[in-house]
């Protein structure tokens, strides 16, 4: 399988997240939408992106996968669902081409070759932007960043509400990840305690073997709100973003020849970001917020 999903999130971690995501979402979303922080705008409000003419477009075929919850997955009814799936439909609606819009799920490892062979027009599946891919494909503007966050054990008293309050406390991190490197670069004075796996890290945090942890906000936001955490912990400070450590964010990948379609998707993403519809999708799938 291609090792290019965003940041340091592992496929196993996404499958684990997916096991309880579907069960939690319906019961938590209504109340959590009122409290979740807003999605940061990634488009300058003063920037105007032209809307290309797509009248000659025969169809727009989005390719995705089913192994990347909550972005793309098969729900309890066997229906293709997720943040990316809903966003693709909103893009088509904004561009007024819903009748020409198709979304197809393929194995993640097959997506790149399928796009290159013109078996689809755009990949919306969490492919990380890499120099190698940029030599072969083009990418839309980012529509979502996956930040890093601290999570703290609520039983541990902290003198302050920022990362500085952790200066005398052990902070866990998963060994060999982008988050370990980011923690060392951003917070060199903090005492880092490395763990071999995410599960080991979270167990240590819950048992107060470390007072806080630094990891991916996506996984942390669902963990602190799940029965697995036993309400021991809460997100703390942040979010922290870094293109160097965490990549360019969530984008849509297209063929190099499709510059007009790429511009149209950028226009749609900017519009959805500004009019709040992207925020609505975000709250639907991230009811506890990442930011």
TrEMBL record:
Listed SUPFAM superfamilies: Periplasmic binding protein-like II
From the Swiss-Prot or TrEMBL record, state where the protein is found: Periplasm
Cell cycle as UniProt keyword? no
Identify the residues that the record assigns to the Solute-binding protein family 3/N-terminal domain, covering every copy: 59-289
Name the InterPro entries on file.
Answer: Solute-binding_3/MltF_N (IPR001638)
Keywords linked to the UniProt accession = Signal
Which region is the signal sequence?
1-32
Q: What is its main location?
A: periplasm
The protein's matches in Pfam families, at most eight in alphabetical order, are given as: SBP_bac_3
- Which intervals of the chain form a coiled coil? none
The record's listing under PANTHER family reads: L-CYSTINE-BINDING PROTEIN TCYJ, MEMBRANE-BOUND LYTIC MUREIN TRANSGLYCOSYLASE F
Report what the protein is called.
Transporter substrate-binding domain-containing protein
Q: What is the lineage of its organism?
A: Bacteria, Pseudomonadati, Pseudomonadota, Alphaproteobacteria, Hyphomicrobiales
């Amino acid at each position: 399988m291609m090792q290019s999903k965003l940041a340091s999130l592992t496929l196993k971690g996404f499958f684990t997240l997916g096991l309880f995501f579907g069960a939690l979402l319906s019961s938590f979303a209504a109340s959590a939408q009122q409290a979740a922080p807003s999605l940061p705008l990634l488009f300058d409000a003063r920037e105007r992106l032209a809307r290309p003419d797509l009248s000659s477009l025969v169809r727009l075929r989005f390719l995705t996968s089913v192994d990347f919850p909550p972005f793309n997955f098969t729900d309890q009814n066997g229906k293709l669902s997720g943040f990316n799936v809903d966003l693709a439909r909103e893009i088509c609606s904004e561009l007024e081409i819903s009748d020409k819009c198709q979304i197809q799920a393929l194995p993640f490892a097959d997506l790149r070759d399928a796009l290159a062979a013109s078996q689809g027009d755009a990949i919306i599946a969490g492919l990380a932007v890499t120099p190698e891919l940029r030599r072969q494909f083009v990418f839309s503007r980012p529509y979502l960043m996956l930040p890093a966050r601290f999570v703290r054990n609520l039983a541990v008293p902290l003198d302050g509400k920022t990362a500085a309050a952790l200066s005398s406390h052990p902070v866990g991190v998963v060994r060999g990840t982008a988050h370990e490197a980011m923690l060392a670069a951003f917070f060199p004075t903090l005492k880092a305690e490395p763990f071999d796996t995410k599960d080991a890290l979270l167990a240590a945090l819950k048992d107060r073997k470390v007072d806080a942890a630094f990891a991916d906000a996506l996984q942390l936001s669902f963990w602190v709100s799940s029965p697995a955490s036993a309400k021991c912990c809460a997100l703390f400070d942040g979010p922290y973003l870094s293109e160097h450590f965490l990549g360019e964010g969530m984008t849509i990948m297209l063929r190099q020849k499709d510059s007009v379609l790429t511009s149209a998707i950028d226009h749609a993403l900017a519009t959805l970001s500004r009019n709040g519809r992207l925020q609505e999708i975000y709250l639907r799938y991230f009811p506890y917020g990442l930011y």
